[in-house]
Amino acid sequence: MLEIHNLSISFQRNRASFDRETLSVVSDISLSVQPGEIVALIGASGAGKSLVAHALLGLLPANATMSGEFIFKGKRLSPAGIQELRGREIALIPQSVTHLNPLTRVGKQVYRSARLSGRCADTAHTSCDRTFARYQLADTVKSMYPFQISRGMARRVLTATATAGNANLIIADEPTTGLDPEVSEQSLAHLKELATQGKGVVLITHDLENGVQIADTLVVLYEGMTVEITPARALEENDLIMHPYTRSLWQALPRNGFMSLPPTPSSSTLNRNGCLFAERCPQARPGCRQSAPSLRRVNHKLVRCNHVAG
Amino acid sequence: MKTSAIIHSFWLQKVGRLMLTLALVATLAFTLVNLSPVDPVTAYLGMDRMQIGQEQEQLIVARWGLDKGPVERFFLWTGNALKGDLGRSMIFNEPVTEVIAKRFLTSLNLMACAWLLSGIFGFVLGVLSGLYKNSLLDRCIRLYAYTVASTPSFWMGMVLLAIFSVQLGITPISGAYPPGTTSADATMWQHLHHLLLPAATLSVIGIAQIALHTREKMIDAMNSNYALFAMAQGDSRFGVAVHQALRNIALPAITLQFASLGELFGGSVLAEQVFSYPGLGKATVDAGIRGDVPLLLGITLFSAIFVFGGNTVADLLYTKLDPRITNRSEPL
Amino acid sequence: MRAPSISLPRVAAVTPIPRLTNRTRAWLACLSCITFLVMLFVAAALLGRSGLDIDFLHRKLAPSLAYPFGTDWLGRDMLTRTVLGLCRSLAIGLLAAGCSSVISIVLGIMAGTMGRRVDSVLSLLIDTVMATPHLVLLILVSFACGGGPQGIIIAVAVSHWPRLARIIRAELLQLRESEFIHLSRKLGKTPSWIALHHLLPHLLPQFMIGLILMFPHAILHAAGLTFLGFGLTPHEPSIGMLLSESMRHLSTGYWWLAILPGLSLVFTVKLFDILGNNLRTLLDPRTAQE
Ligand SMILES: Nc1ncnc2c1ncn2[C@@H]1O[C@H](COP(=O)(O)OP(=O)(O)OP(=O)(O)O)[C@@H](O)[C@H]1O
Ligand code: SF4
Ligand SMILES: [Mg+2]
Questions:
Q1: Average pLDDT for residues B96-116, to the nearest whole number?
Q2: What pLDDT score does C11 carry?
Q3: Residue B109: phi, psi to the nearest 5?
Q4: Domain spanning A2-89+168-303 has what CATH number?
Q5: Strand A64-72 relative to strand A75-76: parallel, antiparallel, unpaired?
Q6: Cβ pair C265:B155 closer than 8 A
Q7: Which among B17, B24, B32 is the top mutation candidate for probing chain C, defined by the most C β-carbons within 10 Å of its own β-carbon?
Q8: What's the CATH class of domain C39-49+76-283?
Q9: Among A229, A250, B124, C266, which is most buried by a count of CB atoms within 10 Å?
């Protein structure tokens, strides 16, 4: 349904006189999503996950440059094409309540989203009511302002906003951050349900656990690069994890005993010639700092590491 | 129950604040006026003083209470002011309260027109400028606003006067109604005709502040998360501006407009001087130049109330119109 | 899942667009202001005072090559009058802004260092000064001084300080809580040492920029007050006085008496306003790096 090829994003910043600095934040990300599939985009905070979603929707800030290509339902997307698809074919469930207009009642925002997805006034009302019922939001919530609703409710309202239309691809940005376990469970269940209806889902999260729970495919990002693309099942068997970074994420999970890595070096000191992970990698060898590994196919997975044996 | 208590405390606080402000302003103004080397009797009589006998002069001094000390005079004046008597204006020979009331009504037309015009145009220009940031339109609006901010309003009035009244002859040169008529005879159209240039002068200047403020807010709003989400739902930039951004920037703009009544008052003083418009601003200048102390004090107090009123409305709008503050007490 | 094609990152090459940074802009603004001042003084010296002589043969002449700004109703050269008036306006503005910023810094430091009580008294004073429209206060003070140039300067000085005083007070309160001041205290440095080594370097730029930003305002308000008829004598006219006189001749069609002197005032004020704003952007950490 969706394919992203070699997506790179960089920012321009003015430095001294007449000098501009280019800051590369996402490089060479490729992934694909099938109908009914959940693809989890996993990476630490600042890895560039949200930017991938914004790039797909054509909503990068003005000082960003992007290269790469998106193919949606077999057609290559142009910037104008993206504009047509936003809200109608591709829907975003954003990261937090700050994405709701603070001065508009919640019901009206869901209704507006339904209208924007191409529904006429009548069907928009019914679909708005339907999604409210679907996500167990009481009718009284409609007349509330975003600051009046709880976090869990906000999550459901955001999901309702994205599903008030009839989009086939849903991008959920951090749907569980800041929620207690019960509510985040519910939030993930809602995504799972959307996938079973045949929609493609991109789940953006920093929590590997979420990915393992409901996703079919995991795409692991480190400093804006794909380091591994693997079926989610593979993780359950620890030795099938190929990339040292993924393995470290896995070992940091509560159920695996919180083994954590040394802290991330600041990106200015990051050595861009060699493997980006080399500073923190437990398996790092001298060669890793000299030549950057490329994404290789090993055992039906894709891994960016020089020292993974097939 | 609970809300009424909140409302009460709001008004009590405001009234207390107003009283305190007025007391301080009155003290300050009275002190300043008493520092003045200008002798009120000379100011009042001018050249005629030579021809007046000692006794008559004593009479005037006694009637104005000038024989008493400044502190005593201050309490006398305050006591009368509390009773609503601000004394008699020397130059108009009428009670100060009446002069202010009459003059203010004339000025009110002017200020209201200018306030509305600058508010509406400033807001619209600010929205367009922020929406099409860095476009040619935005550059023009910004150039205009920044230039006008360094332009004295009285000079702007003179330029408009030279162009429209003198060269083109389409607007009257001065006054609030045609010479030879009184305010009561003049038709509504004549009033408006005379209002045109002074109001335009004030608006041309007033637009700048509100436009620049709205522009900043608009840019923030268009970069906000909710604008991003609305665009992700398929809305166009213009749609986002109308449906999402406007409601977020309107309230700060209206509030700013109310909070800048002081500048409007100051602007009207200058504009009325240029166009010889017989409003409160002209009266302020006359009182200052001709040493009409009671009128000057009265106008100072009145202008403080005027500014305070504007700020109170601004506060009130925020607390009443912003749901985040109005609905604070509602439970989740 | 389809195998993604693998390639090296292809980031579109960005050609550097030559845009002025804030620092360059500030330098340019500074240079323009200095050039302007030098040109003004040179012009004043070259023109001398001969243009001020009354010449009934050349009355009310529109601008021409011989008289670029025209002549007035007494045949005086308007260019000479404008240049001298501008010098005078600048001097008045500088004096007023200087006095005002001294008041600001004294009161700001008092509010920031002398404890709660002084602070609240001063904030009450600020509220009182801000409670009436600016112009009403200007008229009151100028009346209190009995008019004259000193009345204008005192009026502008007395009414412009609250803003800068607030900035200095806020800066001081913030500095007092900062780490390095705490550390210096622990190290046993004397208050005067701290003031000299830590407070002064932070306050001085704020003060300078406050002064420069206040300067154009002071010129404008002084001009307004003079225009209304308070203060300056007609013998040594500032721009406000020139405009006030021209007002009487405006309705008879002598536009150049008002337009050109006013325009030169606007130009001057804008120049210094740009300088002040540029310096402020440099000082503000949020915009300094752009
Ligand atoms: N407008 C911008 N200008 C410069 N850099 C930016 C801009 N927006 C984002 N970045 C950089 O891009 C990187 C990725 O940001 P992004 O929001 O995609 O992170 P994320 O993976 O979504 O993290 P989080 O989990 O915190 O949401 C960040 O390091 C940030 O510094
Ligand atoms: S290439 Fe080397 S440093 Fe990078 S992940 Fe593999 S082993 Fe670690
Ligand atoms: Mg994010």
A1: 92
A2: 37
A3: -55, -50
A4: 3.40.50.300
A5: antiparallel
A6: yes
A7: B32
A8: mainly alpha
A9: A229
Q: Where are the domains of chain C?
A: 39-49+76-283
Residue B194 has pLDDT above 80, yes or no: yes
Say how many C-beta atoms besides its own lie within 10 A of residue C146's C-beta: 14
Q: Per the CB < 8 Å rule, is C4 touching A10?
A: no
Residue C25 pLDDT exceeds 80: yes
- According to the model, what pLDDT value does residue A300 have? 76
- The strands making up A64-72's β-sheet, listed across from edge to edge, are A20-33, A2-14, A64-72, A75-76
Residue A304: closest C-alpha in chain C: C6
Of B169, B221, B161, whose CA–CA distance to B197 is shortest? B161
Q: Distance from C265 to chain B by nearest Cα, in Å? A: 8
Q: What is the mean pLDDT of residues C112-123?
A: 86
- Please tell me the residue having the least CA distance from ligand 2 atom 6: A305
Confidence of residue A108 (pLDDT cuts 50, 70, 90): very high
Residue B245: pLDDT band (50, 70, 90) is very high
Ligand 2 atom closest to the Cα of residue A308 is 6
Q: Which domains does chain B have, with CATH numbers?
A: 96-321 (1.10.3720.10)
Tokens linked to B31: 């002190």
Rg (alpha carbons) of chain C, rounded to whole number:
25
Residue type, B309: G
Q: What is the ipTM of this complex?
A: 0.89
By the 8 A CB rule, do A51 and A65 touch?
no
Q: In what order do the strands lie in the sheet with A296-298?
A: A90-93, A169-173, A200-205, A38-42, A217-222, A225-231, A301-303, A296-298
- Which region among B104-113, B281-290, C6-15, C131-140 has the lowest average model confidence (pLDDT)? C6-15
CB within 8 A of C120, min separation 6: which ones?
none
The overall pTM is greater than 0.80: yes
Six-digit token pair at B280?
């409160």
> Does B175 contact chain C (CB < 8 Å)?
no
